[in-house]
Design goal:
The complex is a heterotrimer. Chain B is of the alpha/beta class. Helix content of chain B is about 30%, strand content about 25%. Chain B is built from eight helices and nine strands. Chain C has a single domain, classed as TIM Barrel (Alpha-Beta Barrel). Helix content of chain C is about 40%, strand content about 15%. The two termini of chain C are about 15 Å apart. Classes of the chains: A alpha/beta, B alpha/beta, C alpha/beta.
Chain lengths: ~140, ~230, ~300
């Protein structure tokens, strides 16, 4: 493994949980890896298969941070997000890429420590996997 | 509606193996509604193809476009300039759209991106079921609005056969026996006595068995040809 | 007389009629059929020859029928609608009649999904009731398209099947009535392994006077074990096996012998059911047991008709 390798990651966050946890984590000065881009969504259910795949054309990993199960403001948004993440993983696997490059995690707005830890863990995992071989270089 | 399902990616990658640049052409008709080949699915396939070929170090240039309907030549005329640019077209339309593409672009290879499955109904999100076989001579008037040609595993006209049990077909416990459905519905409507009559042998010449079918409405024709 | 077959004469005489069944082999070895014919000769009026039963490729029923004729046994060939269209079926009927075959049983046929060629295309140009009607037309000198035959029409006795154990139960008798209307002369039922339901069905048959229009033979299948009985009950669509029989087979020291006992008892019981013309013994892959069952049930020797 190349020790200097720094993966690029996109995190889709629900504005009712992940996004707020990010704000709290930043306020507390919790460490968040550098090359991670956060995107705010009105609900994790807004995540579309296409969002995940288009992101993966450009980055090494995609994480969705959704509200805890049975706690979605729109009732089933987080469950829909889960189905799409699973499907995206399958589509990656079909073409010989690692399905672990796309993942979903559930947490609440007040779980900033878990948030920082989750992002770090995912980052480490992607770093371990190495660069996304399907990435489109242009 | 026509129900289709996207072909496995391995099969599509094999079709496109020798090409460097392709047009992935979606259709805004039935395949959009059944989530097999509309704008979204075109985008998804675009992504998958690009990443798959990138992984192999043999990038594939993909142009993506979805037209209103691929079963009408006039909509295909609008993408002729794109077709000129590519090695081949991958059509995500049903079998009809794919063939119309092949006919509209005689100088270009056109590959099928979906398997056209059946004429059916949307039962639930992500769930479709066959309802019609386009046999060309509708008998729904005699069968309570439930088609024995499409929905009976044996397409029999004087059912149910001896394999009907508990309302299910012998072929699979997940399949409703069409004749049990017909019987139940006509019973509820007080019309079950109509099933006493023997339905005569079917004239299959209206179906595919009469050769490829064609319909001409002279009242609508102003000038012939395309 | 429509066909002047053994079977027809016996049915017309009013004597309790017995038919058997022989499954042709999955090979061209005609000696297998010949062996069964020699063994079973004389114990039944006629023998059904299955037409690629359960959608498994076997020696053809017409060819097997010819072998039976050579051995002095009377064949009753089955024709299913799964594999042939109206052109092929009519041609086969003419061919069978030319070979001297006089009894034909009309069936829809098991779906090919259960057979050894599940990827094949089925035909179902016509269904079993339409097939009966076509055969009835043929023996009256007309092809299915209405064209009159220029030569002698085939002389055939037309049989059909009925399944009192399939659903919807109330409609089963209506369906038999449709088969009688279409021209069927006799009917063999699915194997009776639930006497109570069969008797309820026969009651409905009598209530409509159907037993006077079509001869009904009850299907008899000796069971080899409780396992087979349970399998048939749970996994074969349109089959019912009563708890009583399953229990008896389960507790028997010799389940095969018990299976034969049950079959014999059933026949003796069925003899007394009003409107029943006889029994059809389907000893699936156990043809050699037919003579013993017939003997013990007091059916042999057969009377002359």
């Amino acid at each position: 493994m190349n020790h200097n390798y720094q993966p690029k990651i996109v995190v889709f966050t629900c504005e009712n949980s992940g996004w707020l946890a990010l704000k709290h984590a930043s306020a507390l000065g919790l460490l968040i890896p550098e090359r991670v881009e956060f995107i705010k969504l009105p609900c994790s259910g807004k995540v579309d298969l296409l969002y995940l795949l288009k992101a993966l054309e450009k980055v090494d990993g995609t994480l969705v941070i959704a509200c805890q199960k049975e706690n979605c403001k729109f009732l089933k948004g987080n469950l829909r997000a889960e189905q799409r993440v699973n499907r995206a993983g399958k589509l990656l696997k079909e073409i010989g890429l690692e399905e672990e490059r796309v993942r979903i995690v559930y947490l609440a707005a007040n779980m900033e420590h878990k948030f920082a830890e989750t992002v770090q863990n995912f980052y480490d995992k992607i770093r371990e996997l190495g660069p996304n071989r399907g990435k489109v270089m242009k | 509606m026509i129900i289709a399902e996207r072909k496995p990616i391995d099969e599509i990658l094999k079709f496109l193996n020798k090409h460097q640049k392709v047009l992935v052409l979606g259709c805004g008709g039935c395949v959009t509604v059944c989530l097999a080949g509309g704008e979204t699915e075109t985008g998804i396939l675009h992504s998958q193809l690009t990443m798959a070929r990138n992984k192999e170090g043999r990038p594939l240039d993909v142009i993506e476009k979805t037209v209103e309907r691929q079963c009408d030549f006039e909509y295909l005329a609008g993408v002729r300039h794109l077709v000129k640019e590519v090695d081949a077209v991958l059509s995500l339309a049903c079998g009809i759209g794919i063939q119309t593409c092949a006919e509209a672009f005689p100088e270009k290879l056109v590959w099928p991106g979906v398997n056209t499955k059946f004429l059916g109904v949307n039962l639930n999100v992500g769930e479709w079921a066959e309802r019609c076989q386009a046999c060309g001579h509708c008998v729904l008037d005699k069968t309570g609005g439930i088609c024995p040609v499409a929905r009976c595993s044996k397409s029999i006209f004087n059912g149910p056969c001896g394999g009907s049990q508990g309302g299910k077909c012998e072929v699979s416990p997940d399949t409703d026996c069409a004749w049990a459905l017909i019987y139940d519905r006509l019973s509820r409507l007080g019309e079950v006595d109509s099933l006493r009559e023997i339905m005569p042998v079917k004239d299959w010449s209206f179906s595919r068995d009469g050769g490829p079918r064609k319909l001409v409405r002279e009242d609508l024709e102003l000038e012939s040809g395309q | 007389m429509k066909a002047d077959s053994n079977l027809e004469r016996m049915l017309e005489s009013g004597s309790f009629t017995v038919t058997g069944e022989i499954g042709p082999p999955k090979s061209c070895n005609g000696d297998v059929v010949r062996h069964h014919a020699k063994m079973l000769k004389g114990c039944c009026e006629s023998f059904n020859l299955t037409d690629n039963q359960t959608a498994i490729v076997r020696l053809s029923s017409i060819a097997a029928g010819k072998i039976l004729l050579e051995e002095g046994c009377e064949p009753n060939i089955q024709i299913v609608c799964r594999d042939r269209n109206r052109i092929a079926i009519q041609s086969d009927v003419l061919g069978a009649a030319a070979l001297g075959i006089k009894n034909i049983l009309c069936l829809s046929g098991d779906h090919q999904k259960f057979g050894n060629h599940p990827t094949s295309k089925n035909v179902y140009d016509i269904d079993s009731i339409q097939l009966i009607k076509i055969l009835d037309g043929m023996r009256n000198g007309y092809f299915a398209n209405g064209e009159e035959m220029r030569d002698e029409p085939p002389k055939i006795l037309i049989g059909c099947a009925a399944n009192p154990f399939a659903d919807p139960f109330e409609f089963r008798v209506t369906r038999l009535e449709k088969k009688a209307d279409a021209g069927a002369d006799f009917c063999q039922t699915q194997c009776v392994l639930d006497l109570e339901r069969f008797e309820r069905w026969m009651e409905m048959v009598r209530a409509r006077g159907l037993h006077k229009r079509i001869k009904i033979l009850a299907g008899i299948t000796p069971l080899k074990s409780a396992k087979v009985a349970k399998y048939m009950n749970n996994n074969v669509a349109g089959m019912m096996v009563s708890e009583e029989y399953i229990n008896r087979l389960e507790h028997a020291d010799d389940p095969k012998a018990e299976g034969i006992n049950i079959a014999v008892e059933q026949i003796q019981h069925l003899k007394n059911i009003e409107g029943l013309a006889g029994v059809h013994i389907m000893a699936i892959a156990w043809e050699e047991i037919i003579p013993e069952i017939c003997k013990r049930a007091g059916l042999n020797p057969r009377p002359q008709a």
